[in-house]
Design brief:
Elements: H1 5-10, H2 23-32, H3 45-55, H4 58-63, E1 80-84, H5 88-97, E2 105-109, H6 121-134, E3 138-146, E4 154-156, E5 164-170, E6 173-176, E7 189-193, E8 196-198, H7 200-205, E9 212-216, E10 222-225, E11 231-236, E12 245-249, E13 255-260, E14 274-278, E15 284-289, E16 293-298, E17 300-310, E18 316-322, E19 346-352, H8 359-368, E20 374-380, E21 410-416, H9 420-432, E22 438-443, H10 453-461, E23 468-472
Parallel strand pairs: 1-2, 2-3, 3-5, 4-6, 5-7, 6-8, 7-9, 9-11, 10-12, 11-13, 12-14, 13-15, 18-19, 19-20, 20-21, 21-22, 22-23
Antiparallel strand pairs: 15-17, 16-17, 17-18
Helix pairs in contact: 9-10
Length: 477
């Protein structure tokens, strides 16, 4: 009995040695029965359907007719139909086989990408209409389906009894069926992956019970207005995606995850991204952005390339590194201007220093958050020093600064090399954070245990008796 590749990879029951019985072996068993009775074929329909359902693959279930002729066609009565690694022609034939009825699951996966083939939009439209007729509770068309770019659209019909839909059809442009066709009145979960829906706002208005929405690789502006939406997951990663606007209005939204990738460097709208966001019931926020903001204001060019915000610890995270390149500079890490919150309490900085002085930049970022209670620095430092003429410490007036850090309670630093400018940064933080309770400093493994900088840190901390200071000789501790 043959089976789909996905089932074989996942070791589904349909592909186990016990069920993969060839026609010859089955015939031998029937011939060995003394009275000539086909005992497999004589099993009750309910039991046969139970066995076929356990296979988990419609294609393998159809091949089970090799065991007994009476099993032929029973696969079409299964409550769940998953077509893994089948051809487009086999999908057409399958839809022509089973009559209109309700399914709990209908899943379609056609291996287009691995075979370098595409499917016409009208054909996918026919599959969508056929899927709507059988009214599955959950409908998935995903994984490897690729639509030919011929300019035609795929019609999205009314799934009036479906509660969950996943559309992962690379290159597809979906258009809604006329409003007269009805609403998706029971739909609670919708995933739009690697595709586009014209009139997304109209679609959302026709989904009165929608609670979960996931969108990836969305082009141009994205507007999500929904009175019922509780979870929203948006991913924009690839260089050819040019999302200029994200507009979210969801009064009962509780969970938002937004991930965005770097904009194309030659794209005129790269600095025109706008976020409009209204979700007063928000409980869980995860904002992740691969940035392109950079600044020259700290002597050398620092680039902010990765920014993450969460509602759980740590609430604010930024990853930075120094990079030499030509181009216009954003003097204040412009990516900060689009983050959806400003009252974050935990700031985590992962800094690739490349031997440069970073104190002024850290103090600048600390000054952007007025409610920061905890600072964590993770330093990735190289063994080499920057050149004597390196401008990384210009301007150097940061060393005498005192900034307002009255909310800061905890400081944790990993990868500390105890260089002079790093000790100076500690001094600035200590005198600026008047309510500081605890500081933990973990030396880099490049710092020898005999280094007297440990004593120097303790001596500085003695001036602040209300603060607990701990120094460790290995960042791994």
């Amino acid at each position: 009995m043959s089976s789909c590749r996905k089932c074989r990879n996942n070791q589904k029951g349909c592909c186990s040695d016990e069920l993969c019985v060839r026609r010859e072996r089955s015939q031998l068993r029937r011939d060995s029965v003394p009275d000539g009775v086909d005992r497999i074929g004589a099993l009750p329909d309910d039991l046969i359907l139970y066995i076929l359902a356990r296979i988990g693959c419609a294609r393998a279930a159809a091949h089970a007719s090799l065991l007994a002729r009476r099993w032929r066609g029973l696969w079409a009565l299964l409550p769940e139909l998953a077509f893994h690694h089948v051809t487009a022609d086999e999908i057409d034939a399958a839809f022509a086989t089973f009559a209109r009825r309700s399914l709990s699951l209908l899943q379609i996966r056609v291996p287009c990408r691995c075979h370098d083939v595409t499917i016409d939009s009208p054909r996918v439209s026919a599959w969508m209409r056929a899927a709507a007729r059988v009214a599955p509770a959950k409908f998935i068309i995903s994984d490897d389906v690729v639509v030919r770019k011929d300019g035609s659209a795929v019609e999205l019909p009314c799934f009036d009894r479906t509660t969950a839909i996943t559309l992962e059809v690379l290159g597809a442009r979906f258009v809604l069926a006329p409003a007269a066709a009805g609403d998706l009145r029971l739909l609670e979960s919708l995933s739009l992956l690697n595709c586009h829906v014209e009139g997304l706002g109209d679609l959302l208005r026709r989904c009165p019970r929608l609670r979960k929405l996931r969108i990836t690789r969305w082009k141009h502006e994205l507007k999500v207005h929904s009175p019922s939406l509780e979870e929203l997951d948006v991913e924009v990663y690839l260089h050819d995606v040019k999302t200029r606007l994200v507009d979210i209005e969801a009064p009962v939204l509780k969970k938002l995850r937004f991930a965005s990738g770097p904009r194309p460097c030659k794209w005129s709208g790269a600095n025109e991204f706008t976020l409009s966001y209204s979700a007063p019931m928000m409980e869980n926020l995860h904002w992740r952005c691969f940035c392109s903001s950079k600044t020259d204001r700290f002597g050398v060019r620092w680039r902010l390339f990765h920014l993450t915000l969460k509602t759980a610890n740590p609430l604010g995270q930024m990853h930075l590194h120094h990079r030499h390149e030509d181009g216009n500079e954003d003097q204040d890490f412009g990516q900060f201007k689009i983050i959806p919150v400003t009252n974050f309490q935990v700031l985590e900085l992962r800094i690739k220093t490349e031997g440069h002085v970073y104190g002024a930049m850290v103090l600048h970022l600390l000054g952007l958050g007025k409610f920061i209670r905890r600072l964590r620095l993770e330093l990735h430092q190289e063994r080499y020093e920057c050149s004597v003429s390196c401008p990384c410490d210009h301007p150097s007036d940061w060393r005498s600064q005192t900034i307002s850090l009255t909310g800061l309670k905890e400081v944790e630093i990993h990868g500390f090399n105890a260089k002079g400018h790093e000790i100076t940064l500690l001094k600035v933080i200590f005198r600026s954070a008047t309510m500081l309770v605890r500081t933990d400093v973990y030396f880099s493994n490049m710092v020898p245990s005999s280094n007297n900088r440990c004593k120097e840190i303790y001596d500085i901390a003695e001036a602040y008796p209300s603060m607990e200071c701990n120094v460790y000789h290995d960042s791994a501790e």
